[in-house]
């Protein structure tokens, strides 16, 4: 059984979520005039990528595969340049496709390749981690990292289709499932309280099981939240900023630790920090601050950070792409499911930072 979620707006996209989806939804997403496809995949997925290539060849599509360095190491201009060369070698045309198979780093980077080759060819995302299913693969953000920050070079380029097969999560380690759950819980806080209720009422061991019906429901709900937001604001001109809840501090933590922290772990800490900042401003109750800690902890995510100092993190946050005129901007909750972006003075960060273990 599968669910189809449509992203509407200027650039439409179809997201299929379910189990035992196979390769047919990928083939169906190809342009009718496509003759070639390049499958860009994370290295551990070589056998599955090759199986997809064989499946495409049997249907008349000339298919090739290309791997890349793991995780954030794959999101470099050098990797992108090597894939541009591969696109040229294969003579990929404008009706052809790049199929990104892997986690968020794969879909971010391969999406950028698709967006820039011939100024844009078909992109199909096949996310294989929970984090990618609910975040990176959906919504059209592509990008790579530079020496001055994460995802500062990229484009808004939605995949024509996203095929999120829950069966692919069966071999995903529990910490990686938990990291993906951070983005799911975030969606609950900003837009869908039913997600929070399901997490509260479900035993964590059941929730973080790949074939759990509860995991399938909250995953589908989180994707639906993102689809609704992106349909209204693809290029982050306003509403889409709410998806950055917890991310201002999270990105700083990731960068301060040379991206050795899982993104979801950093987002969990970032959301707990943002909740305390909102409470200090009188926007969020103490009970809902505690609810942040309880729900992220429930799935094994951190709620405190004791690495870099606040001074170091603030310096990094000031280089964040959400900063305007040198002013820090945070997505804060004015009650559950009521997010808004607000300017924040650096001095306001001290109390909430101390509360989650960050040294001055």
Descriptive labels:
360 residues, two-stranded antiparallel ribbon, Rossmann fold, Dehydroquinate synthase-like, alpha domain, 7-stranded mixed beta sheet, alpha/beta, 2 domains, 14 helices, 44% helix
Please compute the radius of gyration using only Cα atoms: 20 Å
Count of helix runs: 14
CATH architectural category of the largest domain: Up-down Bundle
Share of residues in strands: 15-25%
Coarse morphology = globular
Report strand order across the widest sheet: 1-2-9-6-5-3-4
Low-confidence stretches: none
The beta-strand count equals 11
CATH superfamily of the largest domain: Dehydroquinate synthase-like - alpha domain
Question: What would your notes on this structure say?
Answer:
With 360 residues, the chain is of the alpha/beta class. The chain folds into two domains: 168 residues, Rossmann fold, CATH 3.40.50.1970; 182 residues, Dehydroquinate synthase-like, alpha domain (Up-down Bundle). The chain contains 14 helices and eleven strands. The strands form three sheets. Strands 1-2-9-6-5-3-4 form a seven-stranded mixed β-sheet, sandwiched between helices. The N and C termini lie far apart (51 Å). The mean pLDDT is 94.
Summed up:
This protein is α/β, with parallel strands linked by helices and about 350 residues long. Helix content is about 45%, strand content about 20%.
